[in-house]
Amino acid sequence: MSLMRDVVIALMPAVIVSVLFYGWSELLILAVSVASCVLLEWAITKWLLKKPCTVGDLSAVVTGLLLAMNLPSTTPWWVVVIGAVMAIGVAKMTFGGLGQNIFNPAITARVFLLISFPAIMTDWTVPQGFIQNVDAVSGATLLGIAGEKGALAVADVDMLNTFLLNIGGSAGEISALALLAGWVYLLVRKVIKPWITLSIFGTVAVIAAIFHLCNPEMFTGPVFNLLTGGIILGACFMATDYVTSPMSNWGGVVYGVGIGIVVMMIRYFGSYPEGMSFAILIMNCVVPLLNRWFHQRKYGRA
Amino acid sequence: MTSTVIWTIVILTVLGLLLALILFWVARKFKVEEDPRIDEVEKVMPGANCGGCGFAGCRAFADAAVKAPNLDAQYCPVGGNDVMKKVAAILGLEVKEKAPQVAVVRCNGSCENRPRTNVYDGVASCRVKAALYSGDTGCAFGCLGCGDCVSACQFGAISMDPATGLPVVDEEKCTACGACAKACPKHIIELRNKGPRGMRVYVSCVNKDKGPAARKACAAACIGCGICVKTCTHDAIVLEDNVAYIDYGKCRLCRECEAMCPTGAIHGVNFPKELDKDAVKARIAERQKKAREAAAAAEPVAVKPAAEPLKKEENNG
Amino acid sequence: MASKITFSIGGVHPADNKIARGRAIEVLPLPKTVYVSMAQHLGAPAKPLVAAGDSVRTGQVIAEPGGFISAFVHSPVTGTVKSIAPRKDLAGNLVTHIEIAVADEEVWAEGIDLTPGLVTELPSDVPAMLERIKANGVVGLGGATFPTHVKLNPGPNAHPECLILNGAECEPFLTSDFRIMVERPKEIVVGAAIMQKILGGCKCVIGIEENKPEAIEAMGKAVAELGYQGISVQPLKKRYPQGGEKQLIDAVMHRQVKSGALPISVGAVVQNVATSLAVYEAVQKNRPLITNTLTVTGDCLPVEKQHNYLFRIGVPLSFIAEYAGGIPEGAAKLVSGGPMMGRAIANIDACTVKGSSSILYLSEALTKRKPESNCIRCGKCADACPMGLEPFLLNRLYKAGDLGQLEDNAAQDCIECGCCLYSCPANIPLLDNIRQAKGQVMGVIRARAAAAKAAAEAAKNQ
Predict the structure, then answer these.
(1) ipTM strictly over 0.90?
(2) What predicted TM-score, i.e. pTM, was given to this entire model?
């Protein structure tokens, strides 16, 4: 319970920044997403499972927040509700509720929506927010541009600006700084360990560096890859989900490296410009195996 | 276009035939020879896989039954005599009929009889509780009330009575598989013969404390006074470690012990009539008086109660 | 001062709550009747040597060891044996006790040196010293109450390299070891020197956690003044369960005892500081172990009502509670021992034993179990386990009844320290379940060993 509260607190900077820049529509998505996730969990525990209600553990709130932050700010409310049904109803409660699911609920929902409503899910129009940014790139994300037109098209993007504010993309991907602030909070509170996140960053950076050095015209560089798309949101908040990540430190490193490889392969060679969700989902399947292989160092059994 | 269709059909057919051949060969090569009667026996089993027979499940029971020279060591408590007869018919063996049994809870330490001396706040598991301490009452032998027996029962035959805090066995559903008796860390559940029309008498206590201590812990405890042993005319009751035990093989359901028990630890169940304790007591008193008179007539010295142990010693000597 | 060290795997940091640390040890008066338990040590219960009606003197032997691993029991008082009967211990289980009515005047048994002076000269005869430790019923006072003479005599093939004196007292609340280290450091050091000599002159390290600077100072001073060779004080970082035998060996010697092996296999012998004091009294003064120090403490007890008592063994806990001012309001749970590993007192009429270390009054806020929720696989228990086990996994395997997997995942290595339960955010009763699992696995291992032994015997006889 206190762990989930910490996660909610850690997400707040990114949530506030996204609301500031995307305005009322983003607030609506957040509200609908959290409300429908919580309501669904309550309804399912009450009427389908007939078990004590588990809404109080705040995990549904976290799922709702993460789902909302994975959607474009123009998503219609009913798509958000479908996402919530997918996340809570299918990905979480069918497996037995909190702690039992194999796949991260928010990611499952996002991938489902991405495949079912591709047009809505890639509509990166920038709506009116409370704070205007003149440099706003609308219509397509930087990754989208890079995917279509090659690395040169995004070569002169100001990376510092991208680090602070990266308008265009899912709501939660807006500010790397806000996300990292939340991640550091989780580390300080000892909610999560840094190994998974660091190994994802490291793998992405290394692969991007190698490819970029081989052919800078075709492949984007490490800094660009780290700061764009869902890498930071995914690595800090989605891949580190307790339930769907390995328990041991070394298992976490292998899991992170796997995510890094898959996401870079999708970015460079796949038909989608972004692959963080797919990468996490694929590596989620490997977690039970990793848990079997990597064990704690036991006393007196070295 | 046509050639594509034809090629597709040809390739798929050849592939199918090839795979079929491989499967056929594998099936032949790895076939396990098994007595067909195992399947037959398994079919007549109840299929609960409860392990009450002492085997891992119905299949294991069937396997053992087919291999065994006779059925003396095997009995399915769930299916009872009916199933065993069917099994015997399949295998051409004889079956020893057994009296149907039922699980009996030998503790009467309800909240009323047995006051709580402390509050248990740990895991709701009798096994865990028993490992920690003697329990939340003064009695170290009785029911711990966490319901390990309830969760052990596959047939939904045991439930906890919220009023008494003790498990209650549903005799209709109970199959006497013995899972509850095994689950109980205090060994208070016993499989006893069901008795004619379900009538049976048993001591509902396993407290081995001496009388005063047992009585202090629980108002319905067996205090080991031995009155029941003296009363019983069928030699069915033994007193060991301060607890009386009624041998269900010898008990003739006269209910005299039940009437005489000073704490009400002896229970008679499923009798059509309520026990008229005074009438039974009067009957016993009458009988004992007659016996004394008869003894006095035969040998006047033996009338004195003090002479009794003396006589015993002589017999032993 | 040497650098602060600690053990290498797991551990937790509960608030140490050593509220009673400033309270000097007081001598507890005697009640009218004492009840001396026959099961005050690990191993076989002792066999009574007295009968009802006998008059006994303080320090007289009243029970002899019931086996190889067992210990003598002495009368803690002068008086008359009233009965020898089963009586409930603090868990409510029946144990044979000798009931002694206390006489007005105290007469000590012969041969006991009651003079207060410190005897620093060590006897030269090692077997005689061991014999004295055995005859005076000394057992380990760190919690396990393992007979000390057995532990100090590890056999001809063992090579003790380091005697570790356990002054960690890592359990919150408890202050009895702290008080004796501050008040009687010299006796403890002489006791350590005696054990050092018995073990063949190995070095001796006194491990004390850094939250007891007074004890570190007092012990350091005593070591320097007495000038025995090879004894040193080692400050340790505060971390629970530092006082666990295996953890302390890891912290001090950087060696790990193999699963199922004894500490002596890595050259270590661990003794508690209170045991060292008992060894001093047994060898130098021929005083039997009939007293020990006990803390009356708790979070719902004001500091002026907290006490450290020198008690006679066999005194009812209810007498101590009464003498200390009664059970405070707000006490939801009474514990004997520390809050992490101690046992709940289900029966306040139970009597103190050699290893009694506290009466702990805990409020509901500290003890009430919170409702259990689902495991979210956060791995906090695995990080906390000082044995490097995976409690979440063991819990799941226990529920599935998979004994083979439980053994493979080392359920039998659990030291029942409670770190997993303490760290679990879902309030899952990990310790309770793993303790059960450990018991079952140990049963399997023992049965297998017995079967192997029987097979070997059978093969030999043929």
Answers:
(1) no
(2) 0.85
